[in-house]
Write a structure and sequence with these properties.
Number of helices: 2
Structural class: mainly alpha
Radius of gyration: 14 Å
Number of domains: 1
Shape: elongated
Largest sheet: none
Low-confidence stretches: none
Number of strands: 0
Mean pLDDT: 95
Order of helices and strands: HH
Length: about 60
Amino acid sequence: MENFGKVKELVAAVEADAKKFYENGNAAAGTRVRKGMQELKNLAQAIRTEVTEKKNAR
């Protein structure tokens, strides 16, 4: 559940940069969005692995 909380926080943090990129064309914000999306991908993979381990341990 710890990683799931991190995902929620990261999505909220990336949202402001996404608005800056899509609405204002801010290229630096786009870079931050890409970085945030990569972090989300890594967290999602960690959650998948954790869920699989817990499921198989039962």
